Amino acid sequence: MIRKSVALVILAILGLLVMGGLAELPLPAERMSESVTSRHILSEGVSDTGAVNLVTAVLFDYRGFDTLGEATVIFAAAAGVVLLFFRHDLPTSRLGLSSLAKRSIMVLAPFVFVTGLYIVMFGHVTPGGGFQGGVVWATLTILLCIVYGTAFEWRFINTRTKTLLESLGAIAFILLGLVGIYRGDFFLSNIAAGFRAGVPGELTSGGAIPLLNLAIGLKVAAGLALIFYNMVKKDVG
Amino acid sequence: MTHLPILIITTSLLVAFVLPLLGRHFPRAVEPLIIGIISANIVQVSGLLLYVNANGTFRYALGGWSPPWGIALSIDALGLFMILIIQSVSLGILIFARDDLIHEIENSLKPWYYTLFLLLLTAMTGLSVANDFFNVFVFMEISTITACAIIAIKPHPDCIEASLKYLILSTLGSGLVLFGLALVYMVTGYLSFDFIAESLPNAMNLYPLNIIVSLALLVVGMGIKAALFPLHVWLPDAHSSAVSPSSAILSGVVVKIYAVILIRLLYTVYGLDILAHIPISQILLTMATLAIFMGSLFAMGQTDIKRMLAYSSVAQIGYIFLGIALLSPSGITGGILHIANHAIMKSLLFLAAGAIIYQTGIRKIKDLVGIGYQMPLTMGIFGVGALAMVGIPGFNGFVSKFHLAVGALEAQQPVFVIVILISSLMNAVYYFPILIRAFFGPVNHQMKFDQLPLGMVISLIGFAVATIYLGLLPGGLINLAEAISQFLLSRS
């Protein structure tokens, strides 16, 4: 009881200190107009990268290296989950849900897939990108697994294929980055390395950004599906 | 030459992504490939280090976008020195792991283990040269997750519990760092360390409390990850329950990378002028002293040999932070030297303990009676590590402790010389009984020789030679550490 109240008092003091620090800050709107970085990206972003969606321009061009790191985080998490559930077996159930559910998911599946593809490929034009579209793809495999039973998924896209896709996505991202060095510029250089900027707003604009998005989309989809599959495994002792 | 740093990182990442695929079809190629890539990295880093010594530090702008728009890596002596330690120590550990892992984990899991190991190395390599706040955060996340995974790889409840504990506390640390960097970003508008360093003095006048809070958050966040006492609670479980190669890399290298980031932040980003506003040096010195004494005290009470080594790491982290916080040239030199020396000797001790467990299955210190007659080579090498830990002249531990003591005198705080002396005696109190038990106990065994696979023997001998070599001829390493300390002090 005493320990708890002492901890509460200390927390309250620390919290007040942090609040005091935050109270000093100017309002977000003022700060945005002062920030050199945001002003530069707002005014030059489209001509620098060819991408209309400036969030994607920052994510895949200005700070592409951080995105490679984030993709590696997902890769590491998936690898960790594979290790943890290694001794468990996948229950291969063929039952699934009712035939009504099976029919309707088959009608829906192509649309879900295309929606994912759209979000991935148009990441530099409209809100979206590889991470978001990849999650949609991963959802599709999870839906099929629930509706048709795990045996269906196991037969069509087993974990080996998923590992392959995940690695291929990650490798493609690095190879696209190395093109920059090959062309005499820097790692992950985009327009400067000779990728075509195109007409802003079109699918072919943004140089390597759509390709990078596709690589990330594959990686994220396979990685998340892999995590899901390892987690539905059953402990066989 | 200028592309070398990024090539080290990307080729390591490529290999890490390929390993799971390779493991399925050509399992034999996995180990030569990972040992090959690390050897190649060592050669490249050595070349870069010579280049930087001759031509000075440079920045590598990723994507051609120089800061503040993009990310740049800072290729300087501190980062390259750290990469060299990371890669060389892990080369030794991997040569040991080839044979040791067979009896710890299943064969088909080995490629995944190596993948995670290589990702951890690459993340630490990135952290050593990162010069951008968010880049640091991203690499920190990779190293946290991979470190948890290589603890949890052994299918044992203790490992899972330790790994979960580490994951939760380490995520708390990441959260604090993220909060701290957000505060800095809000007042300066930059993520690049160079630009933040430029605009912080001005921001300090406008938002002083904010910057102090950010510094506190960063120090505590990094402190959790570096296991600085009283934030060390996760370390003993994690480092003692993991497989021996994991313990060696975690205790030898991983905790120190966060100390290196903190050095970079304190000296090159915040600078001594801002640090003078806050008693940060005194706070860190107090925590370091506590770590040195409490770590040793806890180590004395342990019955499990790996747990004892883990608590000893808590004490040794204290030495490194002591060097950082003294704010004197020799102090920093001593801290930097101890990062290298402790990485070598603690990896040696963990691997020697792993070799004992491999051959005899003994983990309890009291059961080690007469082990010196069964495994003379391993125990001899363990003795080298123990003497280095205590700081006997002629072993590498002495070199760094000596520089720390000189640094304490330079900073006019002679009390820390006494701290170093007393703690050396405390180290002797828990290391020497093991040696005495091993070699001078009642002999009921016949004299035998170690029955260890060749790889383990080579790795142990390699670490022992490095420990003695750096103790007898430390000149090159000292010059490097002094160059780093000059570089850090010239920046602030």
Q: What this model shows, in words?
A:
The complex is a heterodimer of chains A (237) and B (492). Chain A has helices spanning 2-23, 28-34, 36-49, 54-62, 64-84, 99-121, 130-148, 150-156, 159-182, 209-231. Chain A is mainly alpha-helical and 237 residues long. Chain A has one domain. Chain A is globular and about 60 Å long. Chain B has 492 residues and is an all-alpha fold. Chain B has a domain at 279-492. Chain B contains 19 helices and 2 strands. At the A-B interface, α1, α3, α5 and α9 of A face α1, α4, α5, α6 and α8 of B.
Question: What's this, in brief?
Answer:
Chain A is mostly helical and 237 residues long. Chain A is built from ten helices and no strands. Chain A has helices at 2-23, 28-34, 36-49, 54-62, 64-84, 99-121, 130-148, 150-156, 159-182, 209-231.
Provide the fold topology:
The complex is a heterodimer of chains A (237) and B (492).
Chain A: H1 2-23, H2 28-34, H3 36-49, H4 54-62, H5 64-84, H6 99-121, H7 130-148, H8 150-156, H9 159-182, H10 209-231
Chain B: H1 4-25, H2 27-55, E1 58-61, E2 72-75, H3 77-100, H4 110-129, H5 133-152, H6 157-188, H7 193-206, H8 208-226, H9 235-241, H10 244-275, H11 280-300, H12 305-325, H13 329-360, H14 371-374, H15 376-390, H16 396-410, H17 415-440, H18 454-472, H19 475-491
Antiparallel strand pairs in B: 1-2
For the sheet with most strands of chain A, the description reads: none
Let me know the largest β-sheet of chain B. 2 strands, antiparallel
* Major interchain interface with per-chain residue totals: A-B, 55 and 59 residues
Uncertain spans of chain A: none
Helix content of chain B: over 70%
Number of strands of chain A: 0
Secondary-structure element order of chain A, as H and E?
A: HHHHHHHHHH
- By oligomeric state, this entry counts as heterodimer
Global Rg of chain B: 22 Å
As a percent range, the share of strand residues of chain B is under 5%
Low-confidence stretches of chain B: none
What is the arithmetic mean of pLDDT of chain B?
90
